[in-house]
Amino acid sequence: MYNKLVHRVLLKIQYDGREFYGWQKQEGRRTIQAEIEKALEKLTGEPVEIFGSGRTDRGVHALDQTAHFDLKKNIPVKNLPEALNNLLPNDISIKSAKIVDDNFHARFDIKAKTYVYQVYNAKVKSAILANQSAYVNYDLDMKKMQGAAQILVGKHDFKGFCCANTSVKDFVREIYDIEIKKKGKFLVFSVKGSGFLYNMVRIIVGTLIDVGRGLISEKDVKKALELGNRCYAGKTMPPEGLFLAKTEY
């Protein structure tokens, strides 16, 4: 028997985002948040609201999304992953569950997030990998891409690297590190930061790829930062290659 009637629980979640309209619940659309809340209601017998570390967009995947909720039933927390996974569709998995402090918040207490973007870089596309990677058939200059990536590391106003339709007023974010690694026919971009604007990682990767192709230069990347002008940055990459890979508290 637990000493408290309410536990705040932190879930670690994995999902394949291709059949979802993103994380946040929306009327009449299939979302990750709605599916997990539906499973929790079946399990506990009452409505439960979950609070994610952030929103992933339509088609984006997660290896390590986190969310918290308040558990008001005497259910052993160690049993929650198995119990929820029995109720969830195959494209969502609860990796772990643990009790956290009552004042913990999955979104506001986060220290860093790492996104990974996977590119299949070959002359012929792969049908098997189409939903887990973007396809690029151009030769890319790794050295130029890595040089441009370092321009973006640090605390900057990233207005030139987000969707024009965003309602956000503060565009300042800090990028801690950007790594680009070649693994066979794959290019893997890893971007770690304090937080991210709408489409920011996909635009960063698209910009670096355009630098690698020779379509834009390091000077253009600097202008996009300094002027906050989207037209100097590169294209927005598709969602299929993007994974929320790690959340840190």
Structure in words:
- The protein contains 5 helices and 10 strands; from the N terminus they run βαββαβββαβββααβ.
- The protein has 249 residues and is an alpha+beta fold.
- Strands 1, 2, 3, 4, 5, 6, 7, 8, 9 and 10 form a 10-stranded mixed β-sheet that branches.
- Strand 2 and strand 3 form a beta hairpin.
- Helix 3 runs antiparallel to helix 4 and helix 3 packs parallel to helix 5.
Quick rundown:
The protein is built from five helices and ten strands. The protein has helices at residues 32-44, 80-85, 142-152, 200-213, 218-227, and strands spanning 7-15, 51-52, 61-71, 92-100, 112-121, 134-136, 154-157, 172-183, 186-193, 242-248.
Radius of gyration computed on alpha carbons: 20 Å
- The helicity comes to 10-25%
Global geometry: globular
Q: In percent, how much strand structure appears in the residues?
A: 25-35%
Poorly predicted residue ranges: none
| Number of separate helices | 5
Structural class of the secondary structure composition?
alpha+beta
Overall mean pLDDT stands at 94
Largest sheet: 10 strands, mixed
Number of strand elements: 10
H and E order: EHEEHEEEHEEEHHE
The end-to-end span amounts to: 29 Å
